[in-house]
Design brief:
By secondary structure, the protein is mostly helical. Helices cover about 60% and strands about 5% of the residues. The chain is globular, with a radius of gyration of 29 Å.
Length: about 575
Amino acid sequence: MKIKEFQHQPVKPDTYEASMALNQLMRIGKHAIKLHNMIDDAAEMESWVAKKIDLAGDYVKKVYNYTEGEKAGLYDDDGMSEMKKMPKGTGTMYGVKESREEIGDYAREIESGRIVRIVDFTPDEDGDIYTISYGEDQGEMDVLAKSLKFLDQTGVDQEEISKFDEDAGSLTDEQKKGLQMIHKKYDGYFGNNMDPLVLGYMKYRLSTGVGTDGIEEKELEAALKKYGYDTMYDAEQADDDFYDKINNKEHLPITTAMKSDLDKVMGSDFNDDGKLEMASEYLQNMDESVSEDAGEGHMSKSTLYHTAKYAIELASMIKPGDDLEGWVQSKLNKAADYLQGVYNYEEYQKLNPYREELDSSLMQKHAQVVQKNIDEILAKETKIDDIDTKPGMMRILAKRVNEVEKEIAKETRKQSETQTDESGILYRAGVKKYGKAGMKAIQSAAGKGASHQEIGKIKDKHLKDAEDLEEGLKDWAKKTAMAGVIVAGLAGVNSINNAIDNSIPAIDAMNTALEMAQDSGNDELAKMIEKDLSDAKIRLNSGKDLSYVVDLQNKYAKFIKSESLAYESKLGLMLNQQLK
């Protein structure tokens, strides 16, 4: 999963809030994607980690839903830039008093006209937020108070309120069965907005009005390519009728079939937005129930995926000069800090360079200390426009923990060196001969009382595997080096892909250059470096066109860390730099 470029621009006085939000969205997207790629589907998630991922996802989703509605005109307050305090009973719920006594009451959505029940209330100085229900099993949604009209609970609106239970659950059993069939049939297909295809189409109909939300992404990509366009924007700029031209079975067979199936299932309700909203809620509830059966890691990864997706879309919605409400910026700040905190912790847990040299009980104690310190940092009160203090404190924490464990690892190494005995020497010799996996299998079999004959078979198998792997890597490294690509040591490398990532200094140099470009906000340069990285890895993996990799090696020579290189390699780099 890759994140789209964020247009990071210098802060100007009149665009301060928008620029600050875009900066936070960049952090959210970056850390959501890194965490997504770091977590295994079947992983048992620590509750501390899972809770913060869920909270961050919830904050971003709330901002996304609000911003999408605001851009679509759903939260138009006729020029009112602030919530005005109005007495209960005047109709519009602008700034209803900050209490929860209205929970259980009923209101009407101003935009859709639907009756809803109030199930929760969150006071906010920048705009009170109500959680509303559309009925049992019909879903809930957070909305600003100003998007609702409060109903008289005991008087003239009683007849209107009675319709709430009539409207709830109005999908027929046949429609529900049909929606289940559609959900199963089109599982794995996505609209151009990255929502599941059916939900993307419903979103287009009900809220966004963007037709491509409901077009299968690969079909749209193929149609654009056929007519020589890169994006839908380019196509519609050149041809006003492009959407109508491709909106047919010839160009969009999957999309057309999906709409036809939905039409058959919903029948006369297909053009009823209220019923289509219920169908959308029903499908979303199905998605949530399916995810409950997956592993904890899978659920957190799903949350992170959607968080990154919402961050990308928000970055395109928010424009320089937009005047953002305080609660929006506050939610984005919290989400960004939570995800960075989780990433720092997971990075400590999984990428700690001294992990294998430290006692497991000590590592567990340190993990608890890291969690406690991150919580204390997150709990600190900072100004809403201070988006640097907490990230900076977390970076300092990571550095200090690293320094402490580095010293402990040094001491452990010294003790280990003075206590090396014959068994240790034999083990290392065995690893060299049979590989780590082979030695693990041999020790396991010996521990279970296997015979010499059985252990001999295991040794023969792993000896052949290790020899084949070693020979294959040697041949690859020799061919690569002969082409002029610098290859560092292969110690501990167990595959060609692993060697590309860890034994080719040019790849490490490009990664360093990429990080610097991203940190400086130079998106165009970062995109170019990403392409160079991809091109280099493809050629290294195939063993073809290695001269191209040599050119890239020379291009990024100044980023190559020469300390660990052999003298000949250092000399070659220096020579190339002089020639350039």
